[in-house]
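Quick one:
INPUT:
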């Protein structure tokens, strides 16, 4: 089966109106995309902001008359009709297409992230089998890559580890495979905790070795290693909590931070940690240190 796709160049204030119009015209799905390259990093809670230049993409079943669709759009929009175009799209297995683009990746000297449907390139390496499911964290984003490279360079044998904002569990699982003893993972998203448990099981990690909690249920204890790959704003806000979770002499690694936000985050932790030089990749940074 193929589809007819319409793409409209809209302003954020037009989004709701044109979404309603296209659904009334029979669209089976409506998607908003960035028309340029304007990432939105930390929206306010409860908001879903759009880009200043947004593309609205709507899919219709292929049996719809494209000329009639054009006429209806012009009729609804009148003189304010956005620029738009129509194209036919062949159907495909979208999940398979995504899986085919996700390949094994190496981080540091020992660690490989291997999609669960791939064979490990180096059977003797530390191979983390990953199925990210609906949660973030595959190693493809610079923030995750920076944390994995930091972990690979650390002595982890026998350590207790907290993964704060665990997503897919990739960082905690990497720590365990690199020698950590006990892991605790927390996330505000129940789906993330489910993905973390699934990935832990896939990597043959015993349930008692890797516990998952919603933040409000977290045990109050200190850890040898604290990992937090979230965003700069929450890292600053949560600094007292993350500092408290790190034992004296323990290590911390913080990421999800844009390069221009690094100093603000460093300032929030510098009184309690001897911080290493900031590591940067593609405009994102990782800040690490040892608690005094």
């Amino acid at each position: 089966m193929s589809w007819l796709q319409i793409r409209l160049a809209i302003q954020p204030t037009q989004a709701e109106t044109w979404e309603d119009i296209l659904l009334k015209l029979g669209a089976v799905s409506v998607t908003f995309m960035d028309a340029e390259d304007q990432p939105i990093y930390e929206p306010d809670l409860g908001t879903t902001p759009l880009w200043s230049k947004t593309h609205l993409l709507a899919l219709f079943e292929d049996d719809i008359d494209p000329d009639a669709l054009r006429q209806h759009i012009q009729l609804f929009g009148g003189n304010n009709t956005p620029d738009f175009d129509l194209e036919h799209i062949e159907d495909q297995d979208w999940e398979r297409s995504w899986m085919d683009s996700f390949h094994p990746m190496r981080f540091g000297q020992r660690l490989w992230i291997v999609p669960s449907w791939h064979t490990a390139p180096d059977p003797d390496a530390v191979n983390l089998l990953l199925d990210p499911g609906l949660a973030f964290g595959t190693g493809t984003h610079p923030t995750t890559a920076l944390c994995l490279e930091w972990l690979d360079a650390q002595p982890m044998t026998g350590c207790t580890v907290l993964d704060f904002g665990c997503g897919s569990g990739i960082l905690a699982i990497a720590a365990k495979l690199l020698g950590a003893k006990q892991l605790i993972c927390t996330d505000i998203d129940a789906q993330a905790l489910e993905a973390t448990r699934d990935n832990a099981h896939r990597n043959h990690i015993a349930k008692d070795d890797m516990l998952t909690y919603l933040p409000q249920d977290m045990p109050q204890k200190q850890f040898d290693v604290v990992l937090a790959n979230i965003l700069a704003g929450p890292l600053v806000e949560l600094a007292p909590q993350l500092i408290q979770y790190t034992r004296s002499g323990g290590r911390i690694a913080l990421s999800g931070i844009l390069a221009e936000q690094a100093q603000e985050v460093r300032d929030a932790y510098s009184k309690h940690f001897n911080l290493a030089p900031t590591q940067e990749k593609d405009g994102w940074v990782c800040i690490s240190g040892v608690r005094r």
